Structures are given as C-alpha cells and as structure tokens.
C-alpha cells in the first residue's frame, strides 16, 4: 500500500481529531448530502434497479469464480490486439514494471488518468524515486496533488476542500508544477475549472507516456473501459505514444454484454448521472497496431494482484472484490461523513475501505485491525451498493479475525476460552448450572472487579439465578401430560 499512509494512527485516534474539524465536517456534510440525494433520484427513475443490481452481483461473482480462466482469456485477447501483458504479484513489482517501461521510452514525466489502483500501490512516489514526475489530470486529484495532500474519497478525492481552499492551493502551487494560476483568480467554479484546463493543457500536449487504471476489463475481447466526467481521461488515453494501464485482477468481466449492466449501475450510483459523459474503450492497439492513425503506438497492461488472491480465498470477505468503486457507500455512511476519509489511513476510505483495506494489507497493524470497527453496522452501505456487497456481514467477519489475531487481554482471552470449552461439553455445562443454582444464595450482587473496571461493575447488578436451570426443569417436565407441548 502507498507509503504515504505508513505510520498513520488507528482509526479511533485519527477520527478523534478529524471530528473536531468544523470546516471538514461542514464540507463533508454538504457534499455527501448533495450526492446521496441526487443518487436517490437517479436510481428511482429505473423500475428495474433491483434486477440490475442482482445482475451486477451475479456477473461479478461469475467472474470471480472463474477468475483464472477469464484473466488468461483477457491476456490472450490483449496480446492478439498488439498489447503487452505484465503480471504483478504486489505493489513493488507493479511499480518496478511501470518505472522500467517509462524509462525505456526515455521520458521523465507521465500524465495520469484517475486510478485507485495506482494510489493503492503508491505509484507516484515510486516513479518520483526513479526521477519520473507523474502529473494527475483529474481535477480533484490535481487539487490533492498541488496541495501536497491525500485523497479522502473514492469518487471526489478533494471532497474535504471547499472553493476558497482550492483557490488558495491553485494560487500558491500551480506555478511550481507548471503554468501558474491566472492573476486575480477567485473561488468561482468556472474560474477554477478554467485555471485547471490551462494548467493541464500544456501537459496533455507535451506528454509522451500516459498511465491509467480501468473500470472494467472485458475478457472475451481484451477491451479496457474507463468512465469519467471531465474528458481528461480521454486526453491521457489517446494523445501519448505509450499507454500503461495498471488494473486490479478483480476488474475483469466476462463479456461485452455484461458491460451494459455496469454502464447503468455505475454512473447512477457514483455521480447520479444517467450515463457517464466520457466512456472510453480500447483494445490493444487496434487494427493498425498503432502504425497509423490515432492512439498510442505501444500499450502495456499490468495486471495487479497485491492481496486480491488472498482475499478471494475468504468465502465471506471475497465479496469485497465485487466493488466497482462507485463510492455510494461513503455518501450514506454516518461514520465517514463525520470522520472524513483521511482517518481510514488508506486510498480506500469509508465502508468499502473498512473491509477491502484489511484484506489487501492484512490485519497486522493497529490501523488495519481497527478499520473493521469503523462502522455502526447500520446497513445503509449495503442498501445502496449497486453490486449488493453485504458490507456489515464482512465487517463482523473481519472483527472476529481481528480479535482472534490481536493480543487482547489475558484475563478476557482466558475467560472466553473457558466459556468456549464449557459450551462445547454439555455434561460439564449441566454440572456448572446445577452448582450455580445450588450456591445462588452466596453469589454477590455486583461483580467485584478491581481498578478501572470497578466503574463499570458499580452501575450494573448481576442477574438473579433461578432455583433450577431450564435444562433441569425440562428434564423433569417433558414427559408429563400437563407439561409443555
């Protein structure tokens, strides 16, 4: 995972600070409320939304069940179309592949389409270490990059910034990265957008290498798909001479027909649009193999694992790999809205990040072990997920793993171990119940715990034990005619 997130505190500690930031909470509250209301209206337009959602779930599950088959099919199709496929087991290997490909062109800069996969592996930092500058071209990603910041939302990475903050960032930083901001720049959205266009245009026209991710990879044709709203992606995908796409192996879908389902689910769930303004598809180098016509002369596809195979092995947790990165779950989550994305310490914030990050990175750090607990389990995330990921189910599943793997308290662990053994041995449990009933007059009213635990027990009485257990009562009455039916 990106080195930018290394050393970040556990979620409770980070959230304790972020929830005190009044500006952050105001920005997030306004933005998420606006997005979720627009999404609700867009989804309500479709009478068959439930059927589309079920179809999306089934398609992704089918792809995951035969992932090896579809990946090999995609590799064969991309290769036949003139592209080159590379396999990366982890972030380090993916970064090395991309850096070597860029250096082979002799270039020292790249333009980038917004990509969660490249954020996940820390590609920008890895390229910088090799003397290569990566320019983000998505407006929100540009704001984050110029502000020396981290993204805080899957769809709107700069959601934590307001217009005044963006204006100040443009004024201060644009000149260091290229064309400076216009004199007298205000916080008008039109002026900010125009400043970004002017700043980026020179990079689009100069760059010889483009780097992208992909929303989908169609196995039967080897076609990659990028959906976006600004047109910057189209510029990065068509103008450079070399295109390198870093794609998580879970992005594969079996057929072109399957794409039709997701081109309805994704825009309404993410931007609340009926369709994306820009949907770019490309298959290798096309019929001309790049010799003539438009488009890159060389295409490289880097298929990224980085913990996905291990996630696939978990029968409960694997459903996180269905995610199509729409961010609908973030926009309805009461925890995300108040804590913000940075508190999750990952490129994947919010409910989906709370189940995806611990599986990709493991539960070995305090931060990752805390993420499954960053939820109220209210279920709103599941209700809006366009591919029906049961996020609360996975959260509970990962919480169990975190407790089992964590250090825990020695007394608590011993008590739980003893209780587990007792419940697994009915005869011993019956004997314990009889002993408890026989000695009930001797039991204290409160549990005499020392230290800080005393504050908890002082306000809670122990329950009264009955004269006999239900087990004993049942054994006595089950054969009587006047007993229970």
From TrEMBL:
Q: Does the keyword Nucleus apply?
A: no
Keyword Nucleus in the entry? The reply is no
- Ranges for domain Lactate utilization protein B C-terminal come to 407-477
Where in this chain does the record put each LUD domain? 73-304
Which Gene3D superfamilies did the record assign? Alpha-helical ferredoxin, NagB/RpiA/CoA transferase-like
Show where the 4Fe-4S ferredoxin-type domain sits.
320-389
Q: Which UniProt keywords apply?
A: 4Fe-4S, Electron transport, Iron, Iron-sulfur, Metal-binding, Repeat, Transport
Q: Which InterPro entries match?
A: 4Fe4S_Fe-S-bd (IPR017896), 4Fe4S_Fe_S_CS (IPR017900), FTHF_cligase-like_sf (IPR024185), Helical_ferredxn (IPR009051), LUD_dom (IPR003741), LutB/LldF (IPR004452), LutB_C (IPR024569), NagB/RpiA_transferase-like (IPR037171)
Q: Which NCBIfam families match?
A: LutB/LldF family L-lactate oxidation iron-sulfur protein
Protein's name according to its UniProt entry: LutB/LldF family L-lactate oxidation iron-sulfur protein
- Species of origin: Kitasatospora arboriphila
């Amino acid at each position: 995972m990106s080195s930018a997130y290394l050393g970040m505190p556990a979620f409770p500690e980070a959230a304790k600070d972020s929830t005190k930031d009044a500006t952050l909470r105001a920005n997030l509250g306004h933005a998420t409320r606006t997005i979720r209301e627009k999404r609700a209206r867009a989804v309500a337009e479709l009478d068959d939304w439930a059927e589309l959602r079920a179809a999306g779930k089934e398609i992704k599950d089918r792809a995951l069940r035969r992932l090896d088959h579809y990946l090999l099919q995609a590799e064969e199709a991309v290769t036949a179309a003139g592209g080159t496929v590379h396999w990366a087991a982890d972030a380090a290997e993916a970064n090395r592949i991309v850096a070597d490909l860029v250096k082979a062109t002799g270039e020292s800069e790249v333009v980038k389409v917004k990509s969660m996969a490249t954020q996940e592996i820390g590609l920008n930092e890895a390229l910088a270490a090799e003397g290569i500058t990566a320019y983000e071209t998505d407006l929100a990603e540009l704001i984050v990059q110029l502000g020396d910041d981290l993204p805080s939302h899957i769809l709107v990475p700069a959601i934590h910034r307001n217009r005044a903050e963006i204006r100040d960032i443009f004024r201060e930083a644009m000149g260091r990265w290229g064309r400076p901001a216009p004199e007298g720049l205000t916080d008008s959205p039109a002026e900010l957008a125009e400043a970004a266009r002017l700043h980026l245009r020179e990079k689009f026209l100069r760059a010889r290498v483009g780097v992208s991710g992909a929303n989908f990879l169609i196995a039967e044709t080897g076609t990659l798909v990028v959906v976006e709203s600004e047109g910057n992606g189209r510029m990065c995908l068509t103008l450079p001479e070399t295109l390198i796409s870093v794609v998580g192996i879970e992005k594969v879908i079996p057929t072109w027909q399957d794409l039709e389902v997701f081109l309805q689910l994704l825009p309404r769930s993410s931007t609340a649009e009926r369709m994306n303004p820009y949907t770019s598809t490309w298959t290798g180098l096309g019929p001309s193999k790049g010799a003539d016509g438009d488009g890159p002369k060389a295409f490289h596809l880097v298929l990224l694992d980085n913990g996905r195979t291990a996630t696939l092995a978990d029968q409960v947790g694997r459903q996180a790999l269905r995610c199509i990165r729409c961010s609908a779950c973030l926009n309805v989550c009461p925890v995300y809205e108040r804590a913000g994305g940075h508190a999750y310490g990952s490129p994947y914030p919010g409910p989906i990040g709370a189940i995806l990050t611990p599986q990709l990175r493991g539960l070995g750090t305090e931060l990752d072990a805390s993420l499954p607990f960053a939820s109220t389990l209210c279920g709103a995330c599941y209700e809006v997920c366009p591919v029906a990921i049961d996020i609360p189910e996975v959260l509970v599943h990962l919480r169990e793993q975190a407790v089992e793997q964590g250090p825990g308290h020695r007394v608590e662990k011993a008590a739980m171990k003893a209780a587990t053994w007792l419940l697994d041995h009915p005869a011993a449990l019956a004997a314990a119940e009889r002993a408890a009933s026989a000695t009930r007059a001797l039991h204290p009213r409160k549990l005499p715990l020392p230290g800080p635990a005393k504050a908890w027990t002082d306000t809670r009485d122990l329950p009264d034990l009955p004269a006999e257990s239900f087990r004993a009562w049942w054994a006595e009455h089950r054969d009587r005619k006047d007993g229970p039916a």
